[in-house]
Write a structure and sequence with these properties.
Strand order of the largest sheet: 2-1-3-12-11-4-5-10-8-9
Bound molecules: 3-isopropylmalic acid, magnesium ion
Helix content: 40-55%
CATH architecture of the largest domain: 3-Layer(aba) Sandwich
Structural class: alpha/beta
Number of domains: 2
Largest sheet: 10 strands, mixed
CATH class of the largest domain: Alpha Beta
Oligomer: single chain
CATH topology of the largest domain: Isopropylmalate Dehydrogenase
Shape: globular
Amino acid sequence: MTAKILILPGDGIGPEIVAEAAKVLECLRQDHGLDATLDYGLLGGGAVDALGEPYPEATRRQARAADAILLGAVGGPQWEALDRPLRPERGLLAIRADLELFANLRPAMLYPQLASASSLKPDLVAGLDLLIVRELNGDLYFGQPRGIRTLDNGEREGFNTMCYRESEIERIARVAFAAARQRARRVCSVDKANVLETSELWREVVTRVAGEYPDVALSHQYVDNAAMQLVRAPKQFDVIVTGNLFGDILSDCASMLTGSIGLLPSASLDARGKGLYEPIHGSAPDIAGQGVANPLATILSAAMLLRHTLDKPEQAERIERAVGQVLDQGLRTLDIMADGMTPVGTQAMGDAVVAAL
Ligand code: IPM
Ligand code: MG
Protein backbone atom coordinates (compact mmCIF):
# COMPACT_ATOMS: atom_id res chain seq x y z
CA MET A 1 0.00 0.00 0.00
CA THR A 2 1.27 3.47 -0.85
CA ALA A 3 2.29 5.32 2.32
CA LYS A 4 1.25 8.95 2.69
CA ILE A 5 4.03 11.12 4.06
CA LEU A 6 3.16 14.68 5.05
CA ILE A 7 6.04 17.12 5.06
CA LEU A 8 5.81 20.21 7.29
CA PRO A 9 8.90 22.34 6.59
CA GLY A 10 8.06 24.95 9.25
CA ASP A 11 10.15 28.05 9.98
CA GLY A 12 13.74 29.27 10.10
CA ILE A 13 16.12 26.62 8.77
CA GLY A 14 13.16 24.18 8.56
CA PRO A 15 12.55 24.52 4.81
CA GLU A 16 16.27 24.19 3.99
CA ILE A 17 16.88 21.02 6.00
CA VAL A 18 13.59 19.41 5.04
CA ALA A 19 14.39 19.95 1.35
CA GLU A 20 17.46 17.74 1.77
CA ALA A 21 15.51 15.03 3.60
CA ALA A 22 12.87 15.17 0.84
CA LYS A 23 15.64 14.63 -1.74
CA VAL A 24 16.68 11.52 0.14
CA LEU A 25 13.10 10.18 0.25
CA GLU A 26 12.66 11.02 -3.45
CA CYS A 27 15.80 9.08 -4.26
CA LEU A 28 14.52 6.03 -2.34
CA ARG A 29 11.21 6.38 -4.18
CA GLN A 30 12.73 6.54 -7.63
CA ASP A 31 15.67 4.18 -7.32
CA HIS A 32 15.02 1.89 -4.38
CA GLY A 33 11.35 0.95 -4.49
CA LEU A 34 9.95 3.09 -1.69
CA ASP A 35 6.18 3.22 -2.25
CA ALA A 36 5.16 6.60 -0.80
CA THR A 37 3.65 9.94 -1.75
CA LEU A 38 5.02 13.22 -0.39
CA ASP A 39 2.56 15.98 0.40
CA TYR A 40 3.32 19.43 1.92
CA GLY A 41 1.59 21.50 4.62
CA LEU A 42 1.96 24.45 6.98
CA LEU A 43 2.80 24.46 10.68
CA GLY A 44 4.13 27.14 13.02
CA GLY A 45 4.92 30.74 12.18
CA GLY A 46 4.42 30.28 8.44
CA ALA A 47 0.95 28.89 9.12
CA VAL A 48 0.14 31.89 11.34
CA ASP A 49 1.18 34.25 8.55
CA ALA A 50 -0.75 32.41 5.84
CA LEU A 51 -3.82 31.17 7.73
CA GLY A 52 -3.87 32.94 11.10
CA GLU A 53 -3.19 29.86 13.25
CA PRO A 54 -0.08 27.79 14.06
CA TYR A 55 -1.94 24.47 13.53
CA PRO A 56 -4.69 25.35 11.05
CA GLU A 57 -7.65 23.16 10.18
CA ALA A 58 -6.19 22.36 6.73
CA THR A 59 -3.01 21.01 8.34
CA ARG A 60 -5.02 19.08 10.91
CA ARG A 61 -6.90 17.33 8.10
CA GLN A 62 -3.68 16.52 6.25
CA ALA A 63 -2.00 15.32 9.44
CA ARG A 64 -4.85 13.03 10.42
CA ALA A 65 -4.94 11.50 6.93
CA ALA A 66 -1.17 10.95 6.71
CA ASP A 67 0.60 7.76 7.74
CA ALA A 68 3.67 9.66 8.88
CA ILE A 69 4.80 13.26 9.17
CA LEU A 70 8.23 14.77 8.67
CA LEU A 71 8.71 18.15 10.33
CA GLY A 72 11.56 20.67 10.07
CA ALA A 73 11.30 23.10 12.99
CA VAL A 74 9.02 25.92 14.08
CA GLY A 75 9.45 29.36 15.66
CA GLY A 76 11.34 32.59 15.23
CA PRO A 77 11.72 36.06 16.72
CA GLN A 78 9.10 37.63 14.45
CA TRP A 79 6.36 35.60 16.18
CA GLU A 80 7.56 35.96 19.78
CA ALA A 81 5.38 38.97 20.54
CA LEU A 82 2.17 37.21 19.47
CA ASP A 83 -0.42 36.08 22.00
CA ARG A 84 0.46 32.70 23.46
CA PRO A 85 -2.15 30.68 21.46
CA LEU A 86 -0.73 32.06 18.21
CA ARG A 87 2.90 31.28 18.86
CA PRO A 88 4.52 28.75 16.53
CA GLU A 89 5.46 26.42 19.43
CA ARG A 90 1.76 26.10 20.16
CA GLY A 91 1.35 24.55 16.72
CA LEU A 92 3.84 21.86 17.63
CA LEU A 93 2.21 21.17 20.99
CA ALA A 94 -1.21 21.13 19.30
CA ILE A 95 -0.25 18.56 16.67
CA ARG A 96 1.40 16.36 19.33
CA ALA A 97 -1.81 16.51 21.39
CA ASP A 98 -4.23 16.21 18.45
CA LEU A 99 -2.58 13.06 17.10
CA GLU A 100 -1.93 11.68 20.62
CA LEU A 101 1.78 11.37 19.95
CA PHE A 102 2.65 10.45 23.52
CA ALA A 103 5.92 8.59 23.00
CA ASN A 104 8.89 10.70 22.05
CA LEU A 105 11.99 8.68 21.16
CA ARG A 106 15.22 10.66 21.20
CA PRO A 107 18.26 8.51 20.48
CA ALA A 108 21.70 9.95 21.13
CA MET A 109 24.49 7.98 19.57
CA LEU A 110 27.99 9.04 18.79
CA TYR A 111 29.34 8.63 15.31
CA PRO A 112 32.95 7.52 15.87
CA GLN A 113 34.02 10.02 13.18
CA LEU A 114 32.75 12.84 15.41
CA ALA A 115 34.22 11.92 18.80
CA SER A 116 36.26 15.11 18.76
CA ALA A 117 33.15 17.26 18.18
CA SER A 118 31.75 16.35 21.60
CA SER A 119 32.30 18.80 24.42
CA LEU A 120 33.27 15.83 26.60
CA LYS A 121 36.54 13.89 26.51
CA PRO A 122 36.50 11.32 23.69
CA ASP A 123 36.88 8.33 26.04
CA LEU A 124 33.76 9.37 27.98
CA VAL A 125 31.60 9.34 24.84
CA ALA A 126 33.23 6.74 22.55
CA GLY A 127 30.57 4.15 21.75
CA LEU A 128 27.78 6.20 23.35
CA ASP A 129 24.34 4.88 22.40
CA LEU A 130 21.43 5.90 24.57
CA LEU A 131 17.73 6.41 24.00
CA ILE A 132 15.59 8.94 25.84
CA VAL A 133 11.92 7.98 25.93
CA ARG A 134 10.12 11.19 26.79
CA GLU A 135 6.39 11.33 27.59
CA LEU A 136 4.95 13.98 25.29
CA ASN A 137 1.24 14.53 26.02
CA GLY A 138 1.18 15.32 29.73
CA ASP A 139 3.01 16.95 32.64
CA LEU A 140 3.40 20.70 33.14
CA TYR A 141 3.11 21.16 29.36
CA PHE A 142 -0.61 20.31 29.34
CA GLY A 143 -1.71 20.18 33.00
CA GLN A 144 -4.70 22.26 34.07
CA PRO A 145 -5.18 24.70 35.66
CA ARG A 146 -2.53 27.00 34.25
CA GLY A 147 -2.25 30.72 33.75
CA ILE A 148 -1.19 34.05 35.21
CA ARG A 149 -3.51 35.35 37.91
CA THR A 150 -3.63 38.47 40.04
CA LEU A 151 -3.51 37.91 43.80
CA ASP A 152 -5.48 39.90 46.40
CA ASN A 153 -2.52 42.19 47.00
CA GLY A 154 -2.37 43.02 43.28
CA GLU A 155 0.76 40.99 42.63
CA ARG A 156 0.66 38.62 39.65
CA GLU A 157 1.46 34.92 39.94
CA GLY A 158 2.20 32.42 37.17
CA PHE A 159 1.12 28.82 37.74
CA ASN A 160 1.15 25.46 35.97
CA THR A 161 0.06 22.01 37.06
CA MET A 162 2.30 18.98 37.04
CA CYS A 163 0.18 15.85 36.81
CA TYR A 164 0.33 12.31 35.43
CA ARG A 165 -2.40 9.70 35.40
CA GLU A 166 -1.48 6.06 36.04
CA SER A 167 -2.56 5.08 32.52
CA GLU A 168 -0.26 7.72 31.01
CA ILE A 169 2.70 6.49 33.05
CA GLU A 170 1.95 2.87 32.20
CA ARG A 171 1.84 3.38 28.45
CA ILE A 172 5.10 5.35 28.26
CA ALA A 173 6.80 2.84 30.59
CA ARG A 174 5.77 0.01 28.24
CA VAL A 175 7.29 1.85 25.29
CA ALA A 176 10.55 2.20 27.23
CA PHE A 177 10.68 -1.45 28.32
CA ALA A 178 9.83 -2.68 24.83
CA ALA A 179 12.57 -0.45 23.36
CA ALA A 180 15.07 -1.74 25.93
CA ARG A 181 14.35 -5.31 24.77
CA GLN A 182 15.73 -4.34 21.35
CA ARG A 183 18.81 -2.87 23.00
CA ALA A 184 20.88 -3.51 26.14
CA ARG A 185 17.82 -4.31 28.35
CA ARG A 186 18.33 -1.55 30.89
CA VAL A 187 15.83 1.20 31.74
CA CYS A 188 16.59 4.13 34.01
CA SER A 189 13.45 6.00 35.08
CA VAL A 190 14.10 9.66 35.90
CA ASP A 191 11.88 11.59 38.29
CA LYS A 192 11.92 13.88 41.33
CA ALA A 193 10.23 11.51 43.74
CA ASN A 194 12.03 12.99 46.75
CA VAL A 195 9.95 16.17 46.34
CA LEU A 196 6.99 15.70 43.98
CA GLU A 197 3.87 13.54 44.42
CA THR A 198 3.57 13.27 40.63
CA SER A 199 6.98 11.60 40.64
CA GLU A 200 6.08 9.39 43.60
CA LEU A 201 3.25 7.91 41.54
CA TRP A 202 5.47 7.80 38.44
CA ARG A 203 8.05 5.69 40.28
CA GLU A 204 5.43 3.37 41.75
CA VAL A 205 3.77 2.73 38.37
CA VAL A 206 7.03 2.29 36.44
CA THR A 207 8.16 -0.23 39.08
CA ARG A 208 4.88 -2.12 38.72
CA VAL A 209 5.11 -2.22 34.91
CA ALA A 210 8.72 -3.46 35.21
CA GLY A 211 7.26 -6.68 36.64
CA GLU A 212 5.97 -7.50 33.13
CA TYR A 213 9.52 -7.24 31.76
CA PRO A 214 11.63 -9.43 34.07
CA ASP A 215 14.39 -9.57 31.45
CA VAL A 216 14.89 -5.77 31.60
CA ALA A 217 16.77 -4.19 34.52
CA LEU A 218 15.11 -1.10 36.00
CA SER A 219 16.87 1.63 37.97
CA HIS A 220 15.70 5.05 39.15
CA GLN A 221 17.47 8.40 39.31
CA TYR A 222 16.38 11.82 40.50
CA VAL A 223 16.49 14.27 37.65
CA ASP A 224 19.21 16.47 39.14
CA ASN A 225 21.45 13.46 39.55
CA ALA A 226 20.56 12.22 36.05
CA ALA A 227 21.66 15.56 34.58
CA MET A 228 24.97 15.20 36.37
CA GLN A 229 25.40 11.54 35.38
CA LEU A 230 24.75 12.40 31.73
CA VAL A 231 27.83 14.59 31.64
CA ARG A 232 29.87 12.54 34.14
CA ALA A 233 29.44 9.00 32.79
CA PRO A 234 26.87 8.94 29.97
CA LYS A 235 27.67 5.39 28.87
CA GLN A 236 25.99 4.00 32.01
CA PHE A 237 22.63 4.62 30.28
CA ASP A 238 20.75 2.45 27.81
CA VAL A 239 17.12 3.67 27.87
CA ILE A 240 16.05 6.66 29.98
CA VAL A 241 12.30 7.06 30.50
CA THR A 242 10.98 10.31 31.90
CA GLY A 243 8.21 12.90 31.84
CA ASN A 244 7.66 15.70 29.38
CA LEU A 245 9.58 18.53 31.05
CA PHE A 246 12.52 16.51 32.38
CA GLY A 247 12.77 14.81 28.99
CA ASP A 248 12.86 18.14 27.19
CA ILE A 249 15.80 19.28 29.29
CA LEU A 250 17.75 16.02 29.45
CA SER A 251 17.46 15.41 25.70
CA ASP A 252 19.12 18.72 24.86
CA CYS A 253 21.85 17.84 27.33
CA ALA A 254 22.29 14.35 25.83
CA SER A 255 22.47 15.78 22.32
CA MET A 256 25.61 17.73 23.14
CA LEU A 257 27.40 14.53 24.16
CA THR A 258 27.30 13.50 20.51
CA GLY A 259 28.96 16.66 19.31
CA SER A 260 26.05 18.50 17.79
CA ILE A 261 22.36 18.96 18.28
CA GLY A 262 22.37 19.11 14.46
CA LEU A 263 22.67 15.33 14.27
CA LEU A 264 19.88 14.00 16.42
CA PRO A 265 16.59 12.77 15.00
CA SER A 266 13.44 12.03 16.96
CA ALA A 267 10.16 10.19 16.63
CA SER A 268 6.87 11.06 18.33
CA LEU A 269 4.56 8.06 18.16
CA ASP A 270 0.94 7.28 18.94
CA ALA A 271 -0.32 3.95 20.24
CA ARG A 272 -0.49 2.47 16.73
CA GLY A 273 2.95 3.56 15.54
CA LYS A 274 1.85 6.54 13.47
CA GLY A 275 4.45 9.20 14.01
CA LEU A 276 5.77 12.67 13.59
CA TYR A 277 9.49 12.80 12.93
CA GLU A 278 11.65 15.84 13.52
CA PRO A 279 15.20 16.84 14.35
CA ILE A 280 15.45 17.70 18.05
CA HIS A 281 17.06 21.07 17.30
CA GLY A 282 15.07 24.25 16.79
CA SER A 283 14.55 26.58 13.84
CA ALA A 284 17.89 28.39 14.35
CA PRO A 285 16.70 31.77 13.02
CA ASP A 286 20.24 33.15 13.36
CA ILE A 287 21.48 30.99 10.47
CA ALA A 288 18.23 30.64 8.50
CA GLY A 289 18.48 31.27 4.77
CA GLN A 290 22.26 31.03 4.70
CA GLY A 291 22.47 27.44 3.48
CA VAL A 292 24.79 26.42 6.30
CA ALA A 293 22.45 24.40 8.55
CA ASN A 294 23.15 20.72 9.13
CA PRO A 295 20.44 18.62 7.40
CA LEU A 296 21.61 15.31 8.89
CA ALA A 297 19.24 15.29 11.90
CA THR A 298 16.30 15.70 9.52
CA ILE A 299 17.65 13.09 7.11
CA LEU A 300 18.09 10.70 10.04
CA SER A 301 14.54 11.56 11.15
CA ALA A 302 13.36 10.36 7.73
CA ALA A 303 15.24 7.12 8.44
CA MET A 304 13.39 6.75 11.75
CA LEU A 305 10.13 7.35 9.88
CA LEU A 306 10.91 4.47 7.53
CA ARG A 307 11.81 2.20 10.42
CA HIS A 308 9.09 2.96 12.97
CA THR A 309 6.01 3.84 10.94
CA LEU A 310 6.56 2.41 7.46
CA ASP A 311 8.26 -0.74 8.75
CA LYS A 312 11.08 -0.47 6.22
CA PRO A 313 14.19 -1.18 8.29
CA GLU A 314 16.35 -1.88 5.19
CA GLN A 315 15.55 1.55 3.75
CA ALA A 316 16.26 3.16 7.14
CA GLU A 317 19.62 1.43 7.35
CA ARG A 318 20.42 2.50 3.80
CA ILE A 319 20.04 6.14 4.88
CA GLU A 320 21.99 5.64 8.11
CA ARG A 321 24.83 3.96 6.23
CA ALA A 322 24.89 6.80 3.70
CA VAL A 323 25.18 9.34 6.53
CA GLY A 324 28.05 7.34 8.00
CA GLN A 325 29.74 7.37 4.59
CA VAL A 326 29.57 11.13 4.11
CA LEU A 327 31.04 11.59 7.58
CA ASP A 328 33.79 9.10 6.64
CA GLN A 329 34.47 11.18 3.53
CA GLY A 330 35.19 14.07 5.91
CA LEU A 331 32.19 16.19 4.96
CA ARG A 332 31.23 18.52 7.80
CA THR A 333 28.73 21.33 8.19
CA LEU A 334 29.71 24.30 10.33
CA ASP A 335 28.33 22.85 13.57
CA ILE A 336 30.44 19.67 13.50
CA MET A 337 33.57 21.02 11.86
CA ALA A 338 36.95 20.59 13.54
CA ASP A 339 39.74 23.17 13.31
CA GLY A 340 41.30 23.43 9.87
CA MET A 341 38.36 21.86 8.02
CA THR A 342 36.33 23.56 5.30
CA PRO A 343 32.61 23.31 5.96
CA VAL A 344 30.10 22.19 3.34
CA GLY A 345 26.68 23.78 3.02
CA THR A 346 23.24 22.31 3.61
CA GLN A 347 22.62 21.35 -0.02
CA ALA A 348 26.07 19.88 -0.58
CA MET A 349 25.58 17.71 2.49
CA GLY A 350 22.16 16.53 1.24
CA ASP A 351 23.58 15.84 -2.24
CA ALA A 352 26.42 13.83 -0.73
CA VAL A 353 23.96 11.65 1.20
CA VAL A 354 21.93 11.08 -1.98
CA ALA A 355 25.11 10.18 -3.85
CA ALA A 356 26.07 7.74 -1.10
CA LEU A 357 22.64 6.09 -1.33
C1 IPM B 1 11.36 20.17 21.84
C2 IPM B 1 11.14 21.65 21.87
C3 IPM B 1 9.67 21.91 22.15
C4 IPM B 1 9.34 21.33 23.50
C5 IPM B 1 9.26 23.39 22.08
C6 IPM B 1 9.65 24.02 20.76
C7 IPM B 1 7.79 23.57 22.35
O1 IPM B 1 11.97 22.24 22.81
O2 IPM B 1 10.75 19.49 20.99
O3 IPM B 1 12.16 19.67 22.64
O4 IPM B 1 9.57 21.97 24.54
O5 IPM B 1 8.86 20.21 23.54
MG1 MG C 1 13.38 20.90 23.68
